[in-house]
Amino acid sequence: MSALAPAEACAVTKPSHGASLPAPPRGSRLRAVPGGRSRGDVIATALARWIGPDTARAVVRTFSDRVLGMRPDEIRPEDVPRLLDALRPMLRTLLGQGPAEHVLAELEEALR
Amino acid sequence: MSTRYGRLAAIPVAGAAAVAALAAVTGREHELWFTTQLVAQSLATAGCLVAAAAFERRDFMFRAWILSAVSFLLPVVNKLTTGPHGDWLLGPGGRALQVGYILAVNVAAVGSALLFVGAFFRAGLALTGSRVEDALDVAAVLVVGLGLGVPTLLRDGADALVAGGASQAFFDAVSVAGDIVCFVLVAPLFRIARQFRGGALQWPWGLLAASNLCWLFYDAAATGARVAHSGALRAVSEVVLALASLCALSAALAHRQVVAESRSARTPAGPPSVTR
User: Fold this and answer.
1) Direct distance between the N- and C-terminal alpha carbons of chain B, in angstroms, rounded to an integer
2) How far apart are CA B61 and CA B251, in angstroms?
């Protein structure tokens, strides 16, 4: 059996939102302060509990890129709902509708 | 958290050890195998139904677990119908019924395995790996799946032709064919489990992969026992059957546990510190 691919190589398909959205402007005001965590890190940490840390980081990175056109550490508060919407089908499939909504609601609350 | 899942994963090992111990203590009687099969597959059926109940009807995984439950329930019904000395020969039913029954069992098993692999892709994820890893997967499937399954299938098929119809060999042949397909799905199931490594979902997928792998070994041991009239091989096949069934039970309980935990999950991180 194959070894797990490194997170950098983990592919994600079918984002639920269009991938052709224009990238928002990137500015230093969006970056995490030293010692702080980016919103991408928060989401990846939450997902890691279910799908493992490597795949969670890859999922956040890929969906951030395709749906928002930005890196996980550039996610702004107003981007969070779109990213969580894009993650919804994955969580619904693997955890079921109810638990998926709970996980997403918790994430939305944590990122508010 | 992992301790809880580790306990679930110990169920198949403990169950198989119990069957082996029973065989050593009580002898290798039809009644013993009838009972152990009935218990193991009934537990697997119940486990799959419990896992399905953790989901809503519209959930994808609900269908996967229901189909898995059907694949274990049908053999249980058959055993209850035929008793300890019967096998895939449903009483006075016609040959079409018998053939349809065994086909239904295998279609349910294959369909269930397909849904578990499909869930990963439906979630928007994709298997990753280097060319070397892909080649190793193919090699493993060819060596174990075809190397073990095809000779068993050929032997069962030949015996079925000699017996001329709905013989035990015919049912074994259909079963082996279904299990070979299931085994082809073992590689992606294991790869999915590995991609979930470190997450709770690695347990249901990993245990399901182990269950499907065990079924192929069961086929080889059962056919070997039939051909060689070997009581020892029969005992091995029954231990492996218990292992396969109880791996499915553990996978189902693990998935139910994952769903239960996700219903009450708290995101620990809190608001990130960002400059505005």
Assistant:
1) 37
2) 13
- The complex's ipTM works out to 0.82
Nearest CA in chain B to A60: B125
Nearest to A46 among B54, B194, B269 (CB): B269
Owning domain of residue B228: 2-260
Residue recorded with tokens 């890196």 = A71
pLDDT digit string (tens) for B101-159?
A: 888 988 999 899 999 999 999 999 988 777 787 788 778 777 777 777 777 777 777 77
Going from the C-alpha of B178 to that of each of A20, B108, B138, B149, B160, the distances in angstroms are: 43, 10, 19, 10, 16
CB within 8 Å: A36 and B273: yes
- The pairs formed by B16-24 with CB atoms below 8 angstroms and a separation of 24 or more are B16/B239, B16/B240, B16/B242, B16/B243, B16/B246, B18/B242, B19/B238, B19/B239, B19/B242, B20/B235, B20/B239, B23/B235, B23/B238, B23/B239
Asked whether the beta carbons of residue A51 and residue B201 sit closer than 8 angstroms, the reply is yes
Tally of domains in chain B: 1
Is residue A104 within 8 A of residue A87, CB to CB? The reply is: yes
Backbone phi, psi, residue B125, to 5°: -100, 165
B265 part of a folded domain? no
Q: Do A111 and B272 touch (CB under 8 A)?
A: yes
Residue with tokens 């400059």: B275
Question: Quick check: B133 contacting A, CB < 8 Å?
Answer: yes
Tell me how far the alpha carbon of residue B139 is from its chain's centroid. Answer: 22
The answer, for B122 touching chain A at a CB cutoff of 8 Å, is yes
Q: Does residue B273 sit within a domain? A: no
pTM of the model: 0.83
Backbone angles phi, psi at B258, to 5 degrees: -60, -45
Name the percent of chain B in helix, strand, coil, to the closest 5: 80, 0, 20
The identity of residue B38, as a single letter, is L
**A48–B56: do the CB atoms touch at under 8 Å?**
no
Domain boundaries, chain A: 36-111
Torsion of CA B259, B186, B78, B83, to 10 degrees: -110
Q: Find out whether B274 and A33 touch, Cβ atoms under 8 Å.
A: yes
> Among B128, B133, B192, B208, which would you mutate to test the A interface (most chain A Cβ atoms within 10 Å of its Cβ)?
B128
* C-alpha–C-alpha distance, residues B155 and B162, integer Å: 11
